């Protein structure tokens, strides 16, 4: 497996994944998708990492979609590949880690879908979002048709997906597709500050909070509130909660252990 196209490194509680295929605007091929799957499997076993940041190499693209050359070559295996890709992005969405997309340029098609599989999206001003699949006679298949309307509403999702046109970072912010827009030079600083803040919080609580939000979005409010209680019950009994409360009362920094 070529690891150069998907760089991975850890700095304490923060892990960084850099999609590193700058010449092809970081277009995702199946080798990179498989590597992403492997990284997220490994991360599930890694108690040290709390936040994962995903970004693209260079300053032009986050990910300009799936590799169009590979899509052409896939021929009648296309649906198979798309199912595999969808499963990998679901794995990212369901990861127990907090995943932040630092969107530093084009986030198109599969690139926008990968950003949506993350928990939080911070974009640089030059970022552009879109689903050009229809221009290729295709449609989004890595979860895009389901995640985009959940994030921004059906009308806006249809506007973006049917036109195939790109929207700017500020439009994406107004639509609710990204949580924050910042200058290109300050993107990583902004993301690192956020990742640093998140990583000081109780890991057990973060995981439960993410689980409650994700699981609750797909069921009725009644069921969702029960999901919240289930997760709350686990958090309330956790060692992290004992430690966090004690640390507050003793005016010291908590030493969370993720259990
Ligand atoms: N795939 C492969 N190469 C790509 C690419 C992509 N998605 N995007 C850019 N590149 C390559 C270009 O071919 C070019 O390579 P060279 O010609 O230099 O060798 C290089 O990156 C620089 O691109 P440009 O010269 O085009 O750069 P510009 O600044 O002029 O334009 C652009 C930037 C982002 C507007 C343009 O590159 C562009 O339109 N790119 C394609 C965007 C796109 O259509 N992305 C795909 C979205 S569809 C499936 C699996 C997955 C999917 C679908 C089916 N199956 C298995 C069935 C998912 C689909 C998508 O993601």
Set down the secondary structure blueprint.
Blueprint lengths: L5 E6 L2 E6 L10 H15 L6 E6 L4 E3 L4 H7 L3 H16 L4 E6 L2 E3 L1 H8 L2 E5 L3 E3 L13 H9 L1 H10 L3 E2 H7 L4 E3 L4 H13 L3 H14 L4 H16 L2 H11 L10
Parallel strand pairs: 2-3, 3-5, 4-6, 5-7, 6-8, 7-10
Antiparallel strand pairs: 1-2, 8-9
This protein binds 4-(N,N-dimethylamino)cinnamoyl-COA (DAK).
The site of 4-(N,N-dimethylamino)cinnamoyl-COA has 24 residues, from helix 2, helix 3 and strand 6.
Brief overview:
The protein has about 260 residues and is of the alpha/beta class.
Ligand inventory reads:
4-(N,N-dimethylamino)cinnamoyl-COA
Termini separation comes to 34 Å
Q: Using the 3D structure, state the CATH architecture of the largest domain.
A: Alpha-Beta Complex
CATH superfamily of the largest domain: 2-enoyl-CoA Hydratase, Chain A, domain 1
> CATH topology of the largest domain, what is it called?
2-enoyl-CoA Hydratase, Chain A, domain 1
- Strand order in the sheet with the most strands: 1-2-3-5-7-10
Which percent range describes the beta-strand content?
15-25%
| CATH top level label of the largest domain | Alpha Beta
> How much is the average pLDDT?
96
Please state the CA-atom Rg, rounded to the nearest Å: 19 Å
How many structural domains? 2
Largest sheet, in brief, is: 6 strands, mixed
The assigned structural class equals alpha/beta
Overall morphology: globular
Describe the structure.
The protein has 259 residues and is of the alpha/beta class. It is built from 11 helices and 10 strands. The strands form 2 sheets. A 6-stranded mixed sheet has the order 1-2-3-5-7-10, sandwiched between helices. The chain folds into 2 domains: 3-199, 2-enoyl-CoA Hydratase, Chain A, domain 1 (Alpha-Beta Complex); 203-249, Orthogonal Bundle (Lyase 2-enoyl-coa Hydratase, Chain  A, domain 2), CATH 1.10.12.10. It is globular, with a radius of gyration of 19 Å. 4-(N,N-dimethylamino)cinnamoyl-COA binds next to helix 2, helix 3 and strand 6.
